[in-house]
Amino acid sequence: MATQPASHASAGAAPAPARAPYARVKAYLKQGLSSGRWPPETLMPSESELVHQFGVSRMTVTRALRELQTEGLVHRVQGLGTYAAHLAPVSSTLTIRDLHEEIVGRGHRHHAEVHLSREEPCDAALAPKLGLSAGDPVFHTLIVHHENGVPLQCEDRFVNPACAPDYLQTDFTRITPTHYLLTVAPLWEAQYAIEAGRPTAQEARLLGIARTDPCLVIVRRTVNHNVPITLVRLVHPGHSYRLEGHFKP
Q: What is the pTM of this model?
């Protein structure tokens, strides 16, 4: 399930755009997984093999594999390769996508304003969600993402320092926390809650909306090999977003 800005259908049908190179690689691997070409725990083609087969860059292949991993279809082991994952007969997934890539993919401009980036003591309510003890250090960032200059998302994130020790040294005006964390601490499990709610006073101020305005609120926790990585609250002005999902038995 992914969030998409609300839009209005055009009067005429436009021709389908050419599929991006990474999407071709991803579709090939996804079809092979679906058909059973690579059973669970089977080693899949290497990045070098896919680069040669499709005539694309290694970055393109890496993006395709990363998206398959966030969808739970593969898992990657550093130094060994990519393996087909065990899949349940029916699943409902939240696709974790990089907001920067979504915005740029729409042909729009993304920029981020970092309002907070610090290490602080973990409070008692948060500690068990990140596998920490009260008072342990935790990384905390507060970032507002803009699309074409308009505030689109308020991201309030806590990170387990053990999973991303260099997190606070990262320039989040140049790379999003999602992109960074998927690179240094690939997730194996994600838990999330989605609701319509009101912004806090701080969130309303940062998003330029009223305290009474409805918002789409997503709270997400990710885990890597039973070690919690991050807990994030994502708040979007309700008039700008809708939910889209795909379900297939």
A: 0.61
